[in-house]
Amino acid sequence: MKKTIRDLINNNKDDDIAITSDNSKPLKFSELKKHVYNISSQLSGNGILKTDRAAIVLPNGPEMATTFLAISSYMSAAPLNPSYKLSEYEFYLEDLKPKIVIVEKDSSNPVVAAANKLGIEICEIKRNEGTPAGIFNLYNSTKSFELSDEDDEALVLHTSGTTSRPKVVPLTNKNIYSSAVNIAETLNLTSSDHCYNIMPLFHIHGLIAILSSSIYAGASVYTSVGFNALNFLDKAKKENISWYSGVPTMHQGILMRAKKNMEQAKNLSLRFIRSSSASLPPAVFEELIDVFKAPVIEAYGMTEATHQMTSNPIPPEIQKAGFVGKPAGPDVCIMDIDGNKLEFGSEGEVCIQGDNVMHGYENNEEANKSSFTNGWFRTGDQGFFDKDGYLKISGRLKEIINRGGEKVSPLEIDNILMEHDAIEQVVTFGVKDKLLGEAIGVALVLKNGFQCTEKELKEYARQHLADFKIPKYICFLDEIPKGATGKLQRIGLAEKLGLE
Question: Which residues are CB-neighbours of 38 under 8 A, at least 6 positions away?
Fold first, then answer.
């Protein structure tokens, strides 16, 4: 059996609903199948090959969902955060080299200027009046097209790393298909399920755990325009949802609202609530169960695994607070630094192997050499299995800052701030944060004779970085602590500076 995104979509009953939204009539699978076919023929008709990439910069909603499904069914989709600044778009577009950039009609997003500067074609979606949610055209001319194979690239994302630049993660049709199956089976999804999507659809969590898994199961997704804790309960009631998935900060925002409307929360009759992309505090786990009277399923995922690696099971099996569950798709083991597998209960690096795991980073031989051992991918996370086979993540071997599920490369911020005229040295680091898990801190040394305030530096960062990357803490120092080799010390810096 083929394992492609087109097959995820086509193996469903025509009359079942696939997508719902606020201002359009629901989209049936028959209409989604036709849309995917039409977009493929339009792309082919304009000389775009299945080996090309298309960057997608659209707000959350039905068009973003159907654009991802249609593009990735034919070629490679490269969704980008719509809140990026011009310099960020220039970096990502240069790195990805897409054939086209897909935007809304008359878009004022800075990606348009970045694409024009780099000579990349802008392609505006053309909505059709009176059609269901997510139906649009890209081009007028059409042509027959070549179907994608399971080993063809279908999605490409950047993951923040400890190197000087984010790494490129190419994911194949087979990676996505396999992960969608893993998640759907873990959650026992059926065509009667209806999910409320609050996750951004430029993120692996929303694209795979919510959209792709639901499509595989013949289930439906309410494609909201974004996360809003204030109207979550009303929208969830109106849509009659059976589940939702989010990061811990989203759950906390929803809880604040739900505790003032306990009856409404309980009456949603959710089959389960899912949490991933950052560690869920046990107190929030218990509170969600208490307020919504529904089981909470915490899972563990990463971009390189096309999201899910482990997950707590659905009842009647047990969900453990503070644990990320059992292997749920790929094989998972614990290894020591030399690549030896460790016994249950021993702490070491979490490693994975399976059809949902990427084949390797693009054009990064050094990262691939250090990330794979005997066919196993090393996640960089530290953990252990308990006696029941549930995984506990106990620490991080990498320096990535996990700010509420958004992964931030410290060196990316270093590089931006080092361009400021007043800065001599800078090092970015994570600071423990009760709400977000981690916040961003920077320690810096000013050049002789220069002055600069915290407010000025944050404003400078705001001009060049997305809001979630702006440092919360700025520490002015005469000298930044260094290691034995003279390298600036990132790990443990928050504690040294009295921020933890």
Answer: 137, 142
